[in-house]
Write a sequence for this structure.
């Protein structure tokens, strides 16, 4: 009886491991809005303890007078699918992801994989495999209700979400429209300087705003109805 119980437990364990590995999506690469082909590093198939997980998301198309949203609608009208790349979520992709992986390897002891992983919230439980998740141009995203629910679950489980790149207040409002669906019961608060998140590997006591290339023309660190950070 004990042998039968032990065998059943082992079988359940193996089955559970099989399901877990089956849910981990293999590396995949999509064409970006800037890069259609980008050279893979020689060790791209080598796993790592940390992976640059980039969030895939459907584009927002609701602001009539902003050229980028007209661009998104044009892609949708011609049958393009954000799940196949060449959408707002692929901005700077995959170049920025792999540059950051190189920096993490060089400046920390973290075993970082050399290539990124695009993560789709619609892919069952795949997002839960990545404790750190990044999204770019979130002033141009539009999470569905099911995706917002999955994001809430991801964050409630302890996932860390990082995002950036707002071009003016209109885009920030678009970002918050989806975030209010993720956390309708939570306010937005600033993280104090003394929080441990700023002192895990390095002591990040100062904040530096790195301007884009437009600074060379305009002399401003911001682009649309912005201001200089303090």
């Amino acid at each position: 009886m004990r042998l039968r119980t032990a065998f059943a437990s082992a079988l359940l364990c193996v089955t559970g491991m099989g399901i877990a590995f089956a849910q981990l999506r293999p590396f995949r690469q999509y064409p970006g809005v800037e890069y259609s082909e980008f050279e893979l590093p020689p060790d791209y198939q080598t796993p790592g303890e940390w992976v640059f997980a980039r969030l895939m998301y459907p584009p927002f198309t609701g602001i009539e007078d902003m050229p980028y949203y007209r661009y998104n609608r044009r892609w949708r009208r011609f049958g393009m699918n954000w799940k196949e790349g060449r959408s707002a979520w692929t901005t700077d992709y995959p170049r920025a992801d792999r540059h950051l992986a190189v920096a993490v390897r060089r400046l920390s002891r973290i075993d970082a994989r050399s290539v990124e992983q695009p993560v789709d919230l619609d892919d069952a439980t795949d997002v839960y495999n990545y404790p750190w998740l990044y999204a770019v141009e979130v002033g141009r995203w539009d999470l569905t209700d099911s995706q917002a629910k999955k994001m809430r679950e991801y964050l409630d489980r302890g996932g860390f979400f990082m995002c950036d790149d707002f071009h003016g207040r209109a885009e920030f409002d678009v970002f918050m429209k989806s975030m209010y669906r993720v956390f309708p019961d939570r306010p937005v608060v600033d993280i104090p300087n003394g929080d441990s998140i700023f002192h895990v590997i390095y002591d990040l006591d100062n904040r530096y705003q790195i301007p884009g290339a437009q600074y060379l023309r305009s002399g401003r660190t911001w682009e649309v109805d912005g201001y200089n950070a303090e």
